[in-house]
Each structure stands twice: as structure tokens, then as C-alpha cells.
Amino acid sequence: MGLLWIVTIGWAFSFSLIGVYLSGQVDDFISVLIRTSLASLLFVPLMVRRWPGLRRVMPLMGVGALQIGLMYVFLFKAFAYLSVPELLLFTILTPVYITVFDELYQRQWHVPLRWWLAAALAVLGAAVIRWDAISTNVWVGFLLIQGANGCFAMGQVIYKHLNLGSVPDQVRDFGFFFVGGTLMALIGAVLFADWTNLPDGSVQWGVLLWLGLGASGLGYLGWNTGARWVNTGQLAVMNNMLIPTGILVNVAIWNRDVDWVRLILGGAILLVAVWVASRGVDQPNH
């Protein structure tokens, strides 16, 4: 759990950095491509030492394409519609997705009624937070974050169940995870990026360096490794620890205005949604 806490604290700063210095200034697809490329470069010295074989490389690349490549696209796009506290709060459903995907991964195909109720409560919670500004844009932002949540959750569940050997073996081959994410980001950048909105200045490049080398490169290695040492219930809980830490960082450092009444009320409803979805679920150690 300690490793997951360390990564959570580091990631708490990343949301605010994206919202303040990159969103609306640097093209989203270009930001994602730079971030994943930098993370891949961090592991090149390890990747060139030994070729582990396609049977090991392809699953890692597939998880990377899903968990960071596609997830980052959803995430960066959502910043155009939501404030950082709202965006963080809407990630509260990630534990629901982890529980759902883990059961489906283990071929438990029945979807309980409580998950549909949790989804309805999640929509209600989102409405409470932005009741005076309910519009197509708000719901687009909410749905984009749910896309990011789903990709992030599914990637964690798949990685948790992969046969990857010891921790040194995982570290040695983890770069292929970022290669998969980079290939996904490259496809998106080629098809959709506005290449006139490139990073400009030391601040934006500094943020991207942190996001690529620190938050992504070391962060995902730490998070996915830590996820294999805890059970599914603990992993689900830790996914929500980013919310209070991220909001506190955003308010304390950047002094962002927050409607605390609506944020707390909507957050409480979303928390109930997570509780409803998690009731009666046995969480064995893996």
C-alpha cells in the first residue's frame, strides 16, 4: 500500500499542472504523445538489453495502449469541459469499474442490479455538482472522464492478472507498456492533432517532462507494481485517494474557487454509488 500512496501524492500535482499549464494551450494529442514518448525513453536502456519475446511484449503493449494511450486522450479532452476539482471528483467511479472488470475477467458474467443503481447515482451526483451549469458540455466532460476511468480500471485489472514474474523482471520489461501507449498516442496525433499548438516555453516543457518521466514513467511502474501486491478491494479504495489529495493541492497551491457545498454533497452521492456497487463483493487476495 505504501507504494500506491507515494504515487498518489505525485499524481495529485499532475492534474493541476495539466489544467493550469497545458489544457487549452497545447494540443491534447500532442501532449499525450510527448508524455508517453518520454516515459518510453526512460526505459530504453533496459529494453535494449534483452528481447523478452512477443508472448510477453504484446500483452504489455496492449495494456499500455489502453491504460495510458487511450485513457490520456479521454482525460486531456475532459479538461476543456470541467474544472480540476470536478474532474477529480468524477473519477470516483473508478473503483466501480475495477470491481466490474475484475469479476468479468474471472468469467463471472452476471451484472448485479446494484451496479445499475450505482450508475444512476453517479449521474445524480454529477448533476448536483454542476446544477446551475447543466449543459451538453458538462455531460460531455462527465462522459469523457468515465471513458478515462474505464480505460484506467481495465488496464489495472489486466496487468494485475498477467504472469509477469518477479519485480526485477517487471521493471526490466515495463518499457513495452509505454511503447504500446506511445503507439496509440501517435495514431491519435497523426489523425487528429493540431500541430500549430505545440509546447512553448520552459514552463510547459518542464510540466511535460515531469508528466512523462515522473508521473508516467516512474508513477505507472510504481502503481502497477503496487497493484499486484494488494487485493482488488484495496486497489479500488486506493484509486479514490487521488480525489481528496488532488483537490487539496489544486485549492492550496493555485487558490481555485470551489463551491464546497455542492462539491461535498455531489461527492457524497458519488461515494454512495461506490458503496452500492461494492456491497456483497468478495475481495480475495491475488
Describe this structure in words.
With 286 residues, the chain is mostly helical. The chain has one domain (2-278). It contains 14 helices and no strands. It has helices at 2-22, 28-42, 44-47, 54-78, 84-89, 94-105, 113-129, 136-161, 167-173, 175-192, 202-227, 232-240, 242-254, 260-278. Helix 1 packs across helix 13 (242-254). It is globular and about 55 Å long. The chain starts with a helix and ends in an 8-residue tail after the last helix. The model is unreliable at 281-286 (pLDDT under 50).
Q: In a nutshell, what does this entry contain?
A:
With 286 residues, this protein is mainly alpha-helical. It has helices at residues 2-22, 28-42, 44-47, 54-78, 84-89, 94-105, 113-129, 136-161, 167-173, 175-192, 202-227, 232-240, 242-254, 260-278.
| Integer average pLDDT | 83
Structural class, please?
A: mainly alpha
Strand content: under 5%
- As a percent range, the share of helical residues equals over 70%
Report, as a whole number of angstroms, the end-to-end distance. Answer: 14 Å
Q: Helical element count?
A: 14
- Main β-sheet description: none
Low-confidence stretches: 281-286
What is the ordering of alpha helices and beta strands? HHHHHHHHHHHHHH
Counting structural domains, the number is 1
Strand tally is 0
Radius of gyration: 18 Å
- The global form is globular
Jot down its keywords.
286 residues, mainly alpha, 14 helices
